[in-house]
């Protein structure tokens, strides 16, 4: 089982990747927030806020949310769990290598053991035998986390329609696709993996939707939480926030 801290950040990754589809400020809030302060990592904030509105007004209520809930409601739990285990197992080798780059030897060994055990005894990863054997299921590490660990900044923050938050540094994650077994996935298999994982993540957000709805500026909340999460994954010190903003972020995380 994952540690409590890992569970929090895995929940946060799910929320921020699709938070653009979870909520947005109403028109009165938008008019009142025209004087928002610029953020050093968000040089195209006006564009990003427009993309946030597209996600909330159209893509989420008419596509992402209903499809995700239908998947969760109608696909049997054992099938969904097996699919989730299989897809997670595909990321173990790249996470192993990225942890080696970051100097996390013990975590790298765990990723290696999880991969060969689940691939061999868990029917290609459909069954999580490694967790039952007591091998820790660590957070996935991407190549962007490894380069971030050594001082490469996030670069500009971008709100992608239908996807959510993204930073330019994450473009380096293309390196992860060069490792087996991810290297065997064609574009359609890769999109299928992304979609299946995204549906699970979006469905898990339903109980937290009110948090963003009630936020005075859900866009800024999601952006700041996402950038914090990027620093956490790269295992670098997070930037400091003022007390009011930090308290609000704590409240946001406490709901998980």
TrEMBL record:
InterPro entries: MlaA. Belongs to the MlaA family. Keywords: Signal. This is ABC transporter. It comes from the Bacteria. Residues 1-24 form the signal peptide. PROSITE patterns: PROKAR_LIPOPROTEIN. The keyword Signal applies. The keyword Signal applies.
């Amino acid at each position: 089982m994952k540690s409590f801290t890992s569970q929090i950040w895995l929940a946060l990754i799910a929320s921020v990747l699709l938070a653009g589809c979870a909520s947005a400020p109403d028109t009165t809030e938008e008019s009142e927030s025209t004087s928002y302060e610029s953020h050093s990592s968000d040089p195209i904030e006006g564009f990003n806020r427009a993309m946030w509105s597209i996600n909330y007004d159209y893509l989420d209520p008419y596509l992402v949310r209903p499809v995700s809930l239908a998947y969760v409601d109608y696909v049997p739990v054992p099938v969904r769990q097996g699919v989730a285990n299989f897809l997670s197992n595909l990321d173990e080798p790249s996470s192993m290598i990225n942890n080696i780059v970051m100097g996390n030897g013990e975590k790298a060994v765990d990723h290696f053991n999880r991969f060969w055990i689940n691939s061999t005894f868990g029917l290609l990863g459909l069954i999580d035998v490694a967790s039952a054997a007591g091998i820790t299921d660590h957070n996935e590490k991407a190549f962007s986390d490894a380069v971030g660990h050594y001082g490469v900044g996030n670069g500009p923050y971008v709100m992608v329609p239908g996807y959510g938050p993204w930073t330019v540094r994450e473009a380096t994650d293309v390196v992860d696709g060069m490792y087996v077994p991810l290297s065997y996935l064609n574009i359609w298999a890769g999109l299928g993996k992304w979609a299946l994982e995204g549906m699970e993540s979006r469905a898990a957000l339903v109980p937290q939707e009110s948090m963003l709805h009630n936020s005075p500026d859900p866009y800024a909340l999601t952006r700041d939480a996402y950038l914090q999460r990027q620093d956490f994954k790269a295992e670098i010190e997070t930037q400091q926030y003022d007390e009011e903003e930090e308290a609000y972020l704590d409240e946001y995380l406490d709901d998980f």
